[in-house]
Structures are given as C-alpha cells and as structure tokens.
Amino acid sequence: AVMNAFSQEYHDDYHIIEYSFTNTGNVDGDEDIELSAGLTGVYFFFIHRYMVHDASSWIRGGGAPWGKFTMNDAVGDGHEDYDVDFRAQYAWAGLNPDNTSFSSVGGPMMFAHWGAAGWDTTGRLAAAQMVGRVTISSPDAPGGADSPNQPSTMGVMGSDDPNLTTDEYDPSSMQIQYNTYMASGRLYPHHADDIEPDGNFDTPTNAPNIFDGVYDEGGWSVIEGHGPYDIPFGQTVNIVVADAVGGLSMRAKYDIGKLYKAAGSDSELLSYNGSSMTKNQWALTARDSLFKTFERAIANHASGYNIPQAPYPPEKFEVTSGTDKITLSWVAASGGPTVTGWHIYRAKGTYSFPIIGEALADHGGLGHELIANLAASATGFEDEAAARGENYYYFIQAVGDAAQNNGAAMTPAGALKSNQHWTQTYLPASLKRAPGSGLENVRVVPNPYHVKADTDVRYSDKDRLAFLDVPGNCTIKIYTQLGELVETIEHTDGSGDEYWDQTTSSRQVVASGLYIAHITDNVTDETAERKFVIIR
Questions:
Q1: HSE of 8 in the Cβ direction (CA atoms, 13 Å)?
Q2: Domains of the chain in sequence order
Q3: CA distance 395 to 186
Q4: Residue 445 and residue 468 in contact, taking contact as beta carbons nearer than 8 Å
Q5: Which of 247, 356, 427, 504 has CB atoms 3.0–4.6 Å from 368's, for a disulfide?
Q6: Confidence class of residue 105 from pLDDT cuts 50, 70 and 90?
Q7: How high is the pLDDT of residue 358?
Q8: C-alpha distances in angstroms, 43 versus 39, 46, 182, 301, 480?
Q9: Which parts of this chain are annotated as the region Disordered (predicted)?
Q10: Per residue in 439-455, pLDDT tens?
C-alpha cells in the first residue's frame, strides 16, 4: 500500500491510501513462484475501531477509551438518499448513559485528568469532530473502474466478538468469519439508526454498545469489505480510500465548551458566531466538516495530487535563549512556490494549547499569538517582548503568493502558508538575566508562593519558583525549617536565573511550610541564605 499525506493547510487532515492486491502466486518469503492458479471469491476486509479522542474519553468515562460508546453511521450505501455522491462510514463520540453529570457528546473537558494537559478543564469540546473512511475508487473486477457496489460490505461488528480470534488453519473459524462478516453485505438500519431510531442524535438516550439487542463491552467497530473478486494469476485489484477527520475549529471547540460549562445545562442554547444551538447540536455539526474533508480528498485524487502548494518551510529554524532577548534564526528553503513573507507565532507556558491567533487574556495568555509579520528577505527575529521567568515555544510559517493558488481541489483562494508542524518547537526558550553582582542581591520569587494565586503574581508554570540574581556558577541547597535537605540544585549555565519546580530529590512535591535556601558561590565560596514560604 502507498499512503499519501499532505501538509497544505486545507488538505492536511486526511490520508489517501492506495492498495494494490496482486495474485502473484508467491506464498512464502522467497522470490520463487509456487502457484499459478486463479483466486475466487476474494474479499479485502478492514475493521476500524474508533473512539474519536483519547483524553476526553477518560472524562466521558466508562468504556469510552476503547470505543464502547462510539456511534457509527454510513452514507452512499444505496439504502437512502443521502444527498452525497460518495460511499463512506464514519463515527463520533456517543452517549455514556452512566454519566449523568453532563452529556458526553462532543467530549467536554469538564475537569482535570492525568491524560490531559493541566489547562484543559474549561469545558473545551475535545471530541467535537468525526472520523471515518471514504471510498475513492474500488472496482467490481481486477482492472475495472470504480463501482458504486463497492465496498460490498458496510456495517459493524462487536469489537469483542469471540469469533475475531484468528487461526488461519481452522477452516470452520475462517468460514464463520468469511460468511458472517466479510460477505455480510451492507447493513441496514445502520448502527446509529438502531441506537436512536428517531434520529435524535443530539438528545440521545440509549447506550451505543447495545446494538440489535446485543451488548458488547468493547462497543461496535466499523467493517468494510471489498469483493468478492475472481483474480486470475498475475492480475491486480486496485482500491483507493481516504481516512479523514473533520470537526469544529479549535477556537470554536474552546469558546463553545466554555459557554457550555458556564451554562451547566445540556438543553441551553449557546450563541456563537451568529447561531444558537445546544452543545450537542454544535458538536454534531462536525459531520459537515468531515464530509467536506472527504470531498477534498476525492478532488485531490482526481487532480492527480496536483493541489496548490504552500511555500516550503525553512530548511533550518533555531531558537536561542539570551539574557535580554530570545533570538530566532532560519534558513529559507531553496526552490518551491514564492515566499512573500514570514509569520512568527509564540506560545507561553505550553505548546499544546490548541488556539492560534491572539493570546487568550482570560486563560493565562495561553495559545499561539502572531508576534511578527516579516518581509520575505528576513532571516532572523529578536523577541524582546518575552517576560522573564516564562517558557516560550515558537513556530514560523512561510507565506505564499495568492496569485499562485488556482483553487484546485476545493482549496480556498488566498495566500497559502507552510504548515505549523514543520517548525513547531517543543523545547522551551526563555530570557536569562546576567549573573548577579553579589549574593546580597539574590531574591526568591514569588515569596510567599501560593498555589492558588493568579498568574499576575506567580508564573504560568504552576509550581515554578525562581532564584533571581544568583551567581553564574553556584550551588543552591534547599532545607526545611527543621534542617532537612530537600533538594540540591547545581546552577552552572552562567546566567542569573535558576528555577525550581518544588519537588524533592525523590521527585515528591513539597508540602506547605517555611524553607531556607543556602546559596554558595562556587567561584568565591561566599554564601547567603534566603527564607521563603510555600502555601499549597
């Protein structure tokens, strides 16, 4: 199989997979051909077990992490008029009926969990997307054209079905799998229709893991079977599909999720961008986005993968921490579409906050904000606006020429930009002050430290404590008020800043109390002590 992925911003949320199945007659690992007979009744069969989003599945609870409450649906199978001209199966995060505190549709991040980032407690609709597979081309016979009859099997099977155990040397087991699943045809009613017969997917009441009266603890997986094929020796069946995801924008997930958490009601209408819907209705609009993604994948394949291209990202991108600035430098790629400028984005505290645009004043300034719009000739930038004591993450995008975007394959008009993830930094950069001129200037910040303080009086990293104006080469020993050694920090980078995450040498979080820092200048052997208070 050949998998095709694309970094162009309107075509970066699907993979096009080209399968070629050839009757080679080779049944072992060497190059010799053992058989030359034709094959009859061949199916190419796939099982897709979807669960939509990892961290939110733990918030939704129950068996959601392994797909227990996933809803599955299909279009283009000939059973209904779907108002689309493609065949696809897709899934979304369904109802966990045991979770009565909130509706799990859309995966709202209602509270903290080890599987999620620390900031992710705003109600963000982390699962307000759908995932699925669209068939781009699948023939009825080797060498044939795309057929609306393929895949001939579209439906679901229990994810914990006991007949899924595989033993190719057990004829009866293989016959059950062939007849019951691979050649089972196009299921109707669909899984989603059986779960909610009235189509009330935005006000669900039934458990998605009970289908056709059968309970499956693992939920239900999508099945897809192409065939049956008679394949003469040497002939090939070519199948092209696209695996895709589509949903609300990251900003909409965040904003609508916050509105939902503040409202505290599943039925309340949430007004956003000129429309008013319930949280579940907003989440289910992901279907439209997924279908547009399917259509773009189909159009891309039809164009011979000749979609408009963004400029190439820099060949090299470096971010260097300094005493009064953070320096960014890059080397432009040779060749490719025209570069008309550079956009530089910066995030504070974490690179994983999924908003790109203005920093969010109501959430500690998290998110990637545009901090520089530079000419095409630029090869560097000095960030002098960074705050001391904060960690920063960056990415740079090459901006293209709108005239070079011909709009092919459903690409919107305008200048394209290179993808964020080519240059996203994952190691923090920060401002570093010059070493202190004397131990009398050493300070502990914040002091006192209060874990529940606002970020205007503490750092964005919740447990960060700073020792400022320390010598460039010193040892900091931290003691309890009883004289117990908590941690030893060797500061050797030549700067005047050192930070501590309030953990002991055994990586345990310290308790509230009075602490003493003993600082030794390793060059002069001078010492100083500073007392500070931690309230947790």
A1: 27
A2: 2-102+131-247 (no CATH), 316-430 (2.60.40.10), 439-534 (2.60.40.3580)
A3: 46
A4: yes
A5: 356
A6: very high
A7: 72
A8: 11, 10, 7, 24, 70
A9: 137-157
A10: 999 999 999 999 988 87
